[in-house]
Amino acid sequence: MKQEHNQQLFERYPKIFEHRERLWCRDGWFDLIDALCARLQEISDRTGSQVVARQVKEKFGGLRFYVSQGTTEHADAIAEAEQASHHICEVCGQPGVVKVSSGYVQCRCPAHMPEGARGLEEQMEAARALRKARDEKT
Ligand SMILES: [Zn+2]
Question: What integer pLDDT is reported at residue 107 of this predicted model?
Fold first, then answer.
């Protein structure tokens, strides 16, 4: 994530980003993370249990938001945002889908999808076909 976006989140949510750990995802998820943090802080203020971000990153085309001192309510909000990230282009924030390209799973809109990227189903189908072909040879 761009330094200025990192900085904005640190300034808006100093308690959540107490460790000022940089966020390892692209800028298309900025609004999603911003909204999630607003919700997490509201829950923290209300319950007196201050959630602290441990690591924020992209993995398998989805957002991962690891925290400490979270309540069930925090966990539910995080799970919802992580789910939503599977439908938001990580580059620009437009609606996206998760596909595989060069072994890398990513969520992208049509404009940012690499040439030749495959859907997850398609990818598994191809792997199955490959395995089948190999098994038939032996
Ligand atoms: Zn995009």
Answer: 96
